[in-house]
Each structure stands twice: as C-alpha cells, then as structure tokens.
Amino acid sequence: MDRVYDDKIRLLLVDDEEGFRRTISKRLAKRGMIPVQASDGEECLGILKTTPMDVVVLDVKMPGISGIDTLRLIKQEFENIQVILLTGNVAVSDGIDGIKSGAFDYLTKPVEIDHLVNKIKQAFEIIQLEKEKQKERGYREKLEKKMIDTERLVSLGTMSTGIAHEINNPLAIINESAGFMKQVISSPEMSMFSQKDALLLGIEKIEKSIKRARKITHELLGHVKKQDSQFSQANLKALLYETLGLLKREIKNKQININWEIDPKKNMVWSDPYQLRQVMMNLLSNAIHALGENGSITLSTRETSEDIILEIKDDGIGIPKENLGKIFDPFFTTKPFDEGTGLGLFVAHKILSGLGCKIDVTSTVGKGTCFQIRLPKYDKSNE
Ligand SMILES: Nc1ncnc2c1ncn2[C@@H]1O[C@H](COP(=O)(O)OP(=O)(O)O)[C@@H](O)[C@H]1O
Ligand SMILES: [Mg+2]
Description:
- By secondary structure, this protein is α/β, with parallel strands linked by helices.
- The chain contains 12 helices and 12 strands.
- A 5-stranded parallel beta sheet has the order 2-1-3-4-5, sandwiched between helices. Strands 7-9-10-12-11 form a 5-stranded mixed beta sheet, with helices on one face. A two-stranded antiparallel sheet has the order 6-8.
C-alpha cells in the first residue's frame, strides 16, 4: 500500500554535492521513491519547466543561484510544488528565511533519511489537499454559474410573459383591422381598383406575420389561463396519456412507439397538473420532432426519498454538445423559421422553476435525448 502511494510522488533532489545526491537517491529508492536529480538551481528550474514535479528537496548552499532564490522562483512559477530545504547545521536562519519564502519545511544536514521521507510524504499530502480544494472551488464556481443561468432564465421568463401580454392586445387590433381591410378590398365596389391584388397580397403578408407573432406570444404565455400555480395531487401517467392524445396524429404519421415504464406506485406527484401537461406537451413534441419513422419514446419514473423523477427519452437525432447549454434560452432553435420558435424549452423551464421542480438533460448525437424532471412526491401531508 505504502509503495503505491510513494510511487506517485514526483520528486526532484537538488544538491551540488554529487556524492550526497547519490547516497540520498539510493536510500530513497529503497523506500520506493526515485528522485530526479539536479546539481544546481538553474538545472532545477530547467527540469521543472519540462517535467511535472510534486516535491523539490533543495539544498540551500549551492554555487550559482542560491537555494533561497531558487525557492522563490519555484514558488513564483509553480504554485502547486512543495519545497523542502536542506540547510547546514549552523544556518538555521536560512531555514527560517526559506519558510518565509514559501518552503514547506527545512531539514538540517546531515539528513536522517526517515525524517526526510516523512517530510516528503507530508508535503505530498498538502499538495493533494490543495488539489482537492481547487477541484471543489472549480465545482462550486460551475454550480454558481448554473444558478446564475437559472436566475437569468427565470427573470427573462417573467419579463417575456409581461411583454407577451402587452403585445397580445395590439396584435388583436392589427388582426381585426387586417380582416376588415380584406373585406373592404374584396367588396364589389373595389373590383375596378387596379392595385387590388397587390393590396390583398400585402394584407396576406400582414396576416401571416400576425400568425407568427401570435404563435410566439401564445407559447410564451404557455397557454396559461391563470397566473398562479394550483397545486394538487397529479397522476403523471394520466397526464402523459392525455398529452399524447393531443399529439396522436404526429405519432401515428411517424409510427412512433411509446414505451411505458411507469410504476403506478411511483407516479403521484404534488404539482399543478395543468402546467405539467404544458411541460409534457413541449417535451413530447420536441421528442417527436427529433425522431424519424419507427422511433421510440420511453416514459419512465424513478423514486428518491422525496421526489419522483420523470424521464422522457427519445432515440432521435440528439443534441450536439455545443447546443446543450443553449436549448433553454429563449428563441434558440435549430428548426426552420416556420416550424420552431425556440420557446418550448424556455417555457418548460420557466413553468418548472415556478413549480419548484428541476429539469436536466443528457443527450448523444445520433443516439437520442433524455429529459429528467424532478418533482415532489405526493403524500397525504401535502394537502
Ligand atoms: N428531444 C430533442 N431531441 C433533439 N433536439 C432537441 C430535443 N428537444 C429540444 N431539442 C433542441 O432544442 C431546441 C429548442 O427547443 P424548443 O425550445 O422546444 O424550441 P423549438 O422546438 O421551437 O425549436 C430545438 O430546436 C432542438 O434543436
Ligand atoms: Mg419545441
């Protein structure tokens, strides 16, 4: 066990006395450590530039760059390397200077080998701990970024719902007026008007654009009739079944198989059924869109102590890695102009955030996509 641990330590021994280096190396080798050797500070820095090291054992008294200066240069450039200094018996002040300049510790010559091995191991442990800490820091930063992203999406959601509401009214007026104009232009009195066809064409363009704008506001509002969520007991299987009923034409056209893997015991959640159906609609229509003929959609549930995890999985085209971070953004779509609005997942995310649920996605291009929704389990105390 000890060996495996020792083998992993990348060690550099720097001392101008060749005999000393050789003796120490031999003794360290007996304990399973094989150090790289350097005869002065310059050689040491050269090696560090090309070879990754964990611990440097460094003589303080050397010709050329002094041990302390070498130590400072190492600490400047390689923050993860730990340095153990070897000082002469009388030069304790060198050791103290060294600690001030960032050395892990110092040992006085002549060196007791077990003492040195222990120090090297301790220094290596510090490095491992530091690496763990760095990893954790990186992880936390990533998590924070994800949280900021979620916050950004939530506030965008609130804003866009407001805008959609505001736009709906003028849109209705434009639509009504376009209809009225069309009626007037089509009347017999206008039959002699030479620009009639051009005008009609213009009105049709207006109507088409209204349709597109309506689709967007409609999706943004998520067909929401009521603003507040109404929590109740909700049966996931029944909701999925109802939603698939609305999509049955597309499912039949593409001959899509639906695999049900829902355990009736892991099926009841505490949520807003109406809004959940909306989320399912958005996810299932994306899945259908991603599938060719004879593709499959698998619907399954799992249970944790507090939640039910619903998975909607398709074996369709998949989502490229570079798009995975964007699919929940408003207006991100890879579909042609008249097919996609890029709002389905944005709205799904918005609804789920409002319901206190989490959505995650995993996907492989050419293999398929799986959306997971974590929903609070229903139990009697919810009511
Ligand atoms: N199941 C899926 N399989 C493959 N791609 C998907 C899937 N779901 C979503 N996507 C990708 O995410 C994009 C955004 O989806 P969405 O927000 O619903 O907007 P839209 O469907 O209007 O494009 C899609 O254009 C597509 O590229
Ligand atoms: Mg969609």
